[in-house]
Amino acid sequence: MSDARTRVVGVDVGGTFTDLFVLDEAAGTAEIVKVPSTRGEESVGFMNGIARVDDRGAQSLATIIHGTTVGTNALLERKVARTGLITTRGFRDVLEMRRRDRPQTWGLRGGFEPVIERALRLEVDERVLADGSVHTPVDLDQVRAAARQLLEQGCEAVCVFFINTYANPSNEQAAAAAVRELWPNDHVTAAAEVLPEIREFERASTASLNAALQPVVGRYLERLDGDLRARGFGGELLIVQSNGGVMSRRTAGELPVRTALSGPAAGVIACAAIATAAGHPDVITGDIGGTSFDVSLIAGGQAALASQTSIDFGLVVRSPMIQIETIGAGGGSIASVDAGGMLQVGPESAGSVPGPACYGRGNERPTVTDANVLLGRIAAQRPLGGGLLGALDVEKAREAIRRHVAEPLGLDVLAAAEAILTVANAKMAGAMRLVSIERGHDPRRFAYMPFGGGGGLHVCAMMREVGVVTGIVPRYPGVTSALGCVMADMRHDAVQTLNQDLAAIDFAALRELRAGFASRCRARLDSAGVAFESVREELVLDMLYQGQTHTVAVPVRADALDADAARAAFEAAYRAEFGRVLDGIGLRVMNLRYALIGVRPKFDLSVLAPRGEGRTEPLGEQPVYFGGDWVQARRYARLELPVGARIAGPAILEQADTTVWLEPGFEAVVDALGNLILRQP
After folding, report:
1. Residue 456, CB-side half-sphere exposure with 13 Å CA sphere
2. What are phi and psi of 331, to 5 degrees?
3. Nearest to 264 by CA among 238, 291, 282
4. How far apart are alpha carbons 451 and 459 in whole angstroms?
5. At what angle do helices 394-401 and 413-435 cross, to 10 degrees?
6. Which residue, 68, 164, 197, 449, is most buried by CB atoms nearer than 10 A?
7. CA-based nearest residue to 286, from 278, 277, 296
8. CA 43 to CA 58: how far, in whole Å?
9. Residue 123: Cβ within 10 Å count
10. What is the 3-state secondary structure (H, E, C) of 284-351?
């Protein structure tokens, strides 16, 4: 048995399964553990997985890195803490006014309910102007009275959000200090502490969501940490951020809004490393889970970062995060025929509870998984999860498709099942085009890497739909996000709005601001108690021409932070994005963004490679309905295939965490790292 202190575990809690990737750095080995998730009690599934790692349990582990969906799910389901807002008089409705957008772009229907109801949004006298001057000092007696009123109304958390505090946070800081003196817990969020950046709605939304999540995520992480310590865990518990980095449990409790979409972000980090090692640094990733299809683009081995995202309509988070597009097309997405006689798939999902009709848990409406089961692409007696769910009920899947799709459309049940997959594939292909073609990338020069439990079932269809030449199915597609947790570096970001003409900026003061960012971010790195191979920083200026609205992200060097370097870097970035520069127009700097990255030790991906001679003989054959007819597909144990094994479709490659459907005309080769490299000869 190897030294237990060398073992690192990545944990991703999904709607159906909790996935663990266990890396023993000393022995150079890796294993996966998969257990059922416990809906509403995510920590139970987490601890069940830890107990399965080996008989020593938590005390055998050095580090646990967790990608959590607790915050995201709480926002989507509106199961957040009762939260109050104290704001500048006249601005209590910023959260509802938003950007005057609407849920239905071309319709008049739809509603929006902020996470903080209007009765809990209280106003006080104060005002800071856009230039940072204090027009009206804050009335602290009003602030204290508002805080007491919110406590009487049952609020557990509070957000203090004043106008223009990106320019001068003094009023907001004084108010937050007054609230903290009488608030019975630590769940007090000051907007300028979370996002000192221009744009009032985005700052109000991000800070309010952070406040509403603090009790929910904080309790979850404290309970998790307590359970781990009780079982002998003496290492570090780290949490994946939406920017693809990790942070300490304490920081995650303070800034839970930064955990939104952390699971998919970890998956993209893993895909970038795997694809680059496989010789394909340009790749489109597609995570197919039970509810959604999350797609991202990696160019040159680097995932793109977005400055903000929407968790749901009106729930905007402005924080650096990996650019991920999400649509409602997963294994549990429900198929139906609308009033106009059109077949629709998603966004409504059966989720993991009750799940697809074939689960036999009470759902009678057909899903994408039901279609795959009926058509023979998932063997009912060998379901996903290595049998953790038990056998699937083909007849329940057939009846659901017959009743809700086949009969309304006048199709036979097999044609209806194929139609469900055709519509789902078209939706997913549209998302892939969104991150590639619509952003100026030719998808033909990218490989496609599917992951998640359902990714391998649709890989060939996605390649055909989008025109991708190469597909890469990683060794363990269903636990890729857990693998990404182990790979992620520690990262902390900071931002400050400048809103000044380039010619007027005091670069000496700017260098002092950068030094302050470096000091605070370094303190957060050090507090995590984690060893790093190196520490590097990234510095970005958000710049634009005078008169423009939208900025361009301009990377600059910390040791060359001056006006000439900033101008040259902006022109290079602007020309790369738009093909030209605009001579004779002044430049403006809106924000300074800073990131400090603690580079964690990387492991050799060869630990994932097949060992020994393996097995290339098929396990047997299975009938699969494809293109309007039945074909005999050979079945293989995917993880037993040796390096260099070549499989021609039609074929089904089975493993505990996924199934890969290789269509007729496609070929798969096992590369040196155990990936399946797919091509259509």
Report:
1. 29
2. -60, -30
3. 291
4. 9
5. 80
6. 449
7. 296
8. 14
9. 15
10. EEEEECCCCEEEEEEECCEECEEEEEEEECCEEEEEEEECCEEECCCCCEEEEECCCCCEEEEEEECC
Of 443, 463, 476, 378, the C-alpha closest to 678 is 463
- Which is more confident, 389 or 136? 136
Task: Identify whether the C-beta of residue 549 lies closer than 8 Å to the C-beta of residue 543.
Answer: no
Task: Please name which of 597, 641, 608 lies closest in space to residue 305, comparing C-alpha atoms.
Answer: 597
pLDDT value at 613 more than 90: no
Beta bridge partners of 676: 473, 670
The mean per-residue pLDDT over the stretch 556-580 comes to 90
Enumerate helices (H) and strands (E) in the chain, giving the number of each.
17, 33
CB 25 within 8 A of CB 8: yes
- Answer for the pair 298, 472: CB distance below 8 angstroms, yes or no: no
Q: For residue 117, what pLDDT is reported?
A: 93
Closest listed residue to residue 161, CA positions, set 203, 130, 117: 203
- Inform me whether the pLDDT recorded for 389 exceeds 70: no
Residue 246: partners with Cβ closer than 8 Å, 6 or more residues away: 65, 238, 239, 240, 485, 488, 489, 490, 491, 600
Cα distances (angstroms) measured from residue 400 to each of 239, 357, 361, 445: 40, 7, 13, 40
pLDDT, mean over the chain = 88
Residue found by looking up tokens 């991202």 in the block: 296
Task: Please work out, in degrees rounded to the nearest 5, the angle formed at the alpha carbon of residue 446 by the alpha carbons of 443 and 449.
Answer: 110
Torsion angle (degrees, nearest 10) of CA 526, 530, 534, 535: -30
Are 492 and 557 in contact, with CB atoms under 8 Å apart?
no
Cα–Cα distances in Å, from 513 out to 171, 191, 570, 589?
Answer: 21, 19, 20, 14
Does residue 384 have a pLDDT over 80?
no
Least confident among 46-60, 381-395, 440-454: 381-395
pLDDT band with cut points at 50, 70 and 90 for residue 303 = confident
Structural tokens at position 425: 């594939």
Distance between CA atoms of residues 673 and 643, nearest Å = 8
For residues 667 and 679, the answer to whether their CB atoms sit within 8 Å is yes
Q: Does a cis peptide bond (omega within 30 degrees of 0) precede residue 650? A: yes
Which pLDDT band holds residue 385 (cuts at 50, 70, 90)? low
Extended strands (E) in 442-489: 447-451, 470-473
Q: What is the DSSP code string of 530-568?
A: ---SEEEEEEEEEEEETT-SS-EEEEE-GGG-SHHHHHH
Residue with tokens 């300490």: 248
Say if residues 571 and 581 touch (Cβ distance below 8 Å): yes
Describe the strand order of the beta sheet including 620-626 as a list of residue ranges: 620-626, 629-637, 651-655, 658-662
629-658 per-residue burial string, b: 16 or more CB within 10 A, e: under 16:
eebebbbbebbbbeeebebebbbbbbbbbb
Tokens of residue 565, six digits? 């370097």
What the block records as the tokens of 118 is 């209007």
The better pLDDT of the pair 585, 649 is held by 585
At residue 4 the predicted structure's pLDDT band, cuts being 50, 70 and 90, is: very low
Cα 285 from Cα 345, distance rounded (Å): 21
d(CA 273, CA 486) in angstroms, rounded, equals 12
- For 322-343, how does the pLDDT look when each residue is reduced to its tens digit (9 = 90+)? 888 888 788 888 999 998 899 9
Q: 10 Å Cβ neighbour count for 355?
A: 24
Contact by Cβ (8 Å): 368, 421: yes
C-alpha distances in Å from residue 128, one per residue of 134, 161, 204, 566: 5, 12, 15, 30
pLDDT (tens digit per residue) in 196-246: 988 899 999 999 999 999 999 999 999 999 988 888 888 889 999 888 888
